[in-house]
Amino acid sequence: MTSPSSVQRVVAVQTHLGRPEAIAATCEFVRSVTAHGLVVAAETDVAKALQSCSPGIGIIDKDGIDGLEVVVVFGGDGTILKSAEWALTKKVPVLGVNLGHVGFLAELEVSDLPRIVDQVIRRDYVIEKRLVISVELRTDPDGPVTWHSFAVNEVSIEKLSRRRMIEVLAQVDGLPVSRWGCDGLLVSTPTGSTAYAFSAGGPVMWPELEAFLMVPLSAHALFARPLVLGPESEVVVDLVGGEGAVLWCDGRRTVDAPLGSRVTVRRHENYLQVARLSVQPFTNRLVKKFGLSVEGFRTRYGQTLS
User: Fold this and answer.
1) Ordered domains of the chain (ranges, CATH)
2) Is 256 a catalytic residue?
3) Which of 12, 127, 206, 269 has the most CB atoms around it within 10 Å of its CB?
4) Which of 45, 61, 63, 77 is catalytic?
């Protein structure tokens, strides 16, 4: 198989390889768009899985491909986060088709497939820009960066040992905010506020906001409230007690952080671009995932909504 030509229109696909229904929907999408002259590309493992239904599919070169328009992702938000690992740096929008349970990045359903095909062919979608955070680890606070990554949802600093809490000293913009004995600490984007941070008691933030969210995990302290920070803030977390920690970015990329390490979090230079087929308030997605439908509201409360 060869890489698709840069002179043709190219779209990429990503799919959840552990879900047959995701592979089947991806195959249907590939057949439909290639029938209209588009070239479809995929990473090697996905391309191999799709060969049975779509022979000759291209393979994305992770070092870049000219003319790539959009990545269409079949799965849940986790599959989109996987795609973000290369789509972010290439500044390619991601369009999610939800086959997961609770999806906020992937709002479309498989039943929307004909519409998805039509609007991708016509380039009829809008782009939402999502704030992304950059994460740096120094095992010596005054030493060089020993590991770095990014997070679309959150970076979590979690204790290594079940027996003991970790102690963290959190600074914002060079000033100490608090010292917590805790199970860990999250720094989240607005996108990630409906994920781990939500489960940990943090507020839901509308995704168009440019802000960070800092959430202590099971902190043994009188003051341990989630904090909403400005987009230009820099968060520095020093591991000052305990048996070390482990860092997770989006639950996918991880590294151990020994006692004495310093974690620095700031905004990333790039945004994640999320493609939407229609403009609708985030409230719609929020109600769909966590709340009542309009009919459910009327049934429960006997009220008429305007």
Assistant:
1) 10-130+272-294 (3.40.50.10330), 133-267 (2.60.200.30)
2) no
3) 12
4) 77
